[in-house]
Amino acid sequence: MQDDLLAPGAFLSPLVIADAVRRALDEDLGRAGDITSAATISEGKKARAKLAARKPGVLAGLACAQEAFHALDPAVEFRANKRDGAALKAGDVAAEISGNARAILSAERTALNFATHLSGIATLTAAFVARVKHTKARIVCTRKTIPGLRALEKYAVRCGGGMNHRFGLDDAILIKDNHIAVSGGVTAALKAARASAGHLVKVEIEVDSLAQLEEVLKIGGADVALLDNMDIATMKRAVEMARGKLALEASGGVNLDTAAAIAETGVDMISVGALTHSAPALDLGLDIEM
Q1: At CA 73, angle to CA 290 and CA 104, rounded to 5?
Q2: Tens of pLDDT along 229-239?
Q3: Which has the least CB within 10 A, 52, 121, 159, 187?
Q4: Does the active-site annotation cover 67?
Q5: Which of 48, 50, 54, 109 is catalytic?
Q6: Does the annotation count 144 as an active-site position?
Q7: Angle at which helices 14-29 and 101-132 pack, to 10 degrees?
Q8: pTM of the full structure
Q9: Which entry of 177, 223, 228, 283 is annotated as an active-site residue?
Q10: What CATH number is given for 2-123+279-289 in this structure?
């Protein structure tokens, strides 16, 4: 069952998993399939393999790896020793795979691509979360994702202890600097957004100065203010101004060296684009045992 592989409390639709894996396998197998395995391995040959960590990190993408093997042969046995969200030490075996050798080798790269990429995101997220754990700030992701993989990458952020920002343009209103410029200013943009938003739709607005924040607070109607590229002193003042009136999200210039200081200003959330656009892959390997 895929649910047994997913991180506790972090849902991921099996339809998303199946679709992403199918597209990846189509890309890899092309028109003729794995001609190397077909040429060198007899049709009924069996094999065993271990999916193991070569470096420490946080696991994510195990259900995608399982789906890759099962898509080529449902009879392949995939036994998980860990589940997503688990901390891995170098040498830990996350899963053991056994069955048709051709299917295992043909699915190997697709399975590893998902597992190493998503585990890398989870690992980097966990590092950011650790830097701010002494504060109330939550680490959140952005829409800076690889096209077609957003749901998977945002799930990996949850595996690392982070939280999700909006998934797309359709699930929350986020008024950014260009919206403000085109609509004629903070007041005009915020009033128009609030008039349009349904009662369940959150409204967030980006501000790059205390003057803009003051205008937002005076107008009302925003649920969240995004503090864009503010220095620490300015953020502290923004927290004092907005206390109890709306939530504050810090964004811009966030890295592992700056996250703690930003969190200590008292902001509620810190958005980090690097979680999904710059996380290095976690080194996982698939080792065959004949």
Answers
A1: 35
A2: 999 999 999 99
A3: 187
A4: no
A5: 109
A6: yes
A7: 130
A8: 0.96
A9: 228
A10: 3.90.1170.20
